[in-house]
Amino acid sequence: MSNNREKDQFLDILEKNIGIILKISRAYTKRINDKEDLVNDITLELWKSFGQFKGESKISTWIYRIALNTSMNYKRKKEKDKLFFPDDLKQFENQGWIIDQPDSSISEILYLCIDELNQLNKAIILLYLDGNSQDEISVITGISKTNVGTRISRIKEQLKVLAFTKI
């Protein structure tokens, strides 16, 4: 495959699936600068592994797996490298495509609750909310389908409890 054709194919896939990357970056970051960095990191990791994608799974499954792994690594690195910037530091936000549109309060509460989950549960519930089947979630996360079902039930209960503390 020629380099230009491969690049065009990658950009087409990226454009069609940017929503996945934006949702995951929103769930794993709080500041706009971190979100931009994470989107860039995910895109770079997707590009680096694009030549190895064999089409044995859906393209969205491949994107989810890379995006979630990149996000978890990013969050671990950020927590390790955290210096002195408190979470409530006001950030100047540029206007652009990465800035979230104003959300309903229910959606915002849901994201606040999801943010309190551990890394694996956060990944599972994001995949579930995006309409992925238990089979797909199992493939993406590497845990059994039965474990996925059990975790989803427990996560829903945990989110209910967390939501009541936010309301």
Mind sketching the topology for me?
Blueprint (H helix, E strand, L loop, with lengths): L2 H26 L3 H19 L8 H23 L23 H11 L3 H11 L4 H8 L3 H22 L1
Helix pairs in contact: 1-2, 1-3, 2-3, 3-6, 4-7, 5-7, 6-7
Can you walk me through this structure?
This protein has 167 residues and is mainly alpha-helical. It folds into two domains: 95 residues, Rna Polymerase Sigma Factor, Chain: A; 66 residues, Arc Repressor Mutant, subunit A (Orthogonal Bundle). 72% of the residues lie in helices and 0% in strands. The chain is built from seven helices and no strands. The chain is globular and about 55 Å long. About 12% of the residues have low confidence.
Give the % helix: over 70%
Number of strands: 0
Fraction of residues in β-strands: under 5%
Predict the CATH topology of the largest domain: Rna Polymerase Sigma Factor, Chain: A
First CA to last CA: what distance? 54 Å
Report the uncertain regions: 83-102
Task: Give short descriptive properties of this protein.
Rna Polymerase Sigma Factor, Chain: A, mainly alpha, 2 domains, Arc Repressor Mutant, subunit A, 7 helices, about 170 residues, globular
